[in-house]
Amino acid sequence: MPGQPTGHRGDTHGRGELPEQLARLADPETSPPPQQLGARLRNYFLTGLVIVGPLAITAWVVRLFIDFIDGWVRPVMPDVEAWLGRLLQANYAQWLASSKIIGVLFAIIAITVIGALTANLLGRTIVSYAELMLSRMPVVRNVYSGIKQIFETVLSESGNSFQKVGLVEFPRQGMWSIIFIAGASRGEVDVRLSQGEPTICAFLPCTPNPTTGYLIYVKKSEVIELDMTIEEAAKLVISAGLIAPEFKGGGDLPAMAGLPKKAGGIMPGRP
Predict the structure, then answer these.
(1) What tens digit of pLDDT does each residue of 155-205 get?
(2) What pTM was estimated for this model as a whole?
(3) Do residues 128 and 122 touch, judged by C-beta distance below 8 A?
(4) What is the count of structural domains for the chain?
(5) CA nearest 223: which of 171, 161, 267, 262?
(6) What's the number of CA atoms in the CB half-sphere (13 Å) around residue 230?
(7) Sequence-ordered list of residues with C-beta below 8 angstroms from that of 259, at least 6 positions apart, any chain
(8) What are the backbone angles phi and psi of residue 179, rounded to the nearest 5°?
(9) DSSP-derived secondary structure for 215-240
(10) End-of-domain residue from the set 155, 174, 206
(11) Is residue 215 one of the residues assigned to a domain?
(12) Does residue 61 lie within any of the structural domains?
């Protein structure tokens, strides 16, 4: 029949494509080279390093902390071994007394007891007299007051810590930096700067050490508030941008939504 040869030739051509593709894959010049043993071992090593590295560093930091606390507390501790010897066997009591975790536990118990004692009137009176004595020492009072304010700010539950994370143009137009928003500016700074437009107080951390940075006062309209938490922003700063938190906001929002534009770049809140 007239149509059969044409269909037969087309079918043969279709079935012949598969052997040709297999032949090209088998050809060493066209097939992808297999991964060498050295490269595979390197990948295995890097994968294990990613897993073991953070665990080892965390364990090392915890051990340093325990050694530091134990070194400070051990000289003022009572004879724990004799007290434990009454409750446990001699070998268990000696092993537990020599353990450095005992120093940490003693420090936790002592701090808790001191906190409980200062909660009443007598304890507050003693603390007030002690602070009064420290306030009369020229150098010690500055160190004590500064450290006390830091502890009260960090450990306070009244909301005096950083509230939000934001972006601000720094160090020049078109470059943005992470800031930790402390709140609205107050006092004389607020009176001098907030002339009809509110300003905020923020901390601009440095990478990779977020404990250093700049205290800045900026107009609220020049700040882009972010949804990430303080902890996520700290990880972003410490990792130099390598660890970016996942954005779980709804929809594709433009990054500069609501900010006025000007020729040559985006400069929020400026003419």
Answers:
(1) 665 555 688 999 999 988 889 999 999 888 888 888 888 777 889 999 999
(2) 0.51
(3) no
(4) 2
(5) 267
(6) 13
(7) 224, 266, 268, 269
(8) -130, 150
(9) EEEEEGGG-EEESS-HHHHHHHHHTT
(10) 155
(11) yes
(12) no
257 DSSP 8-state letter: T
Q: Which of 126, 155, 184 is at the close of a domain? A: 155
d(CA 146, CA 154): 12
1 lies in some domain: no
Number of C-beta neighbours around residue 220 at 10 A: 17
> Domain of 133?
118-155
The DSSP call for residue 174 is: T
Q: How many residues does the chain have?
A: 271
Residue 89: both structure tokens together: 């066997």
Q: Are residues 221 and 171 in the same domain?
A: yes
Instruction: Quickly count: other Cβ atoms within 10 Å of residue 218's Cβ.
Output: 22
Q: Which of 179, 187, 262, 161 is nearest to 218 (CA)?
A: 179
Same domain (yes/no): 182, 238: yes
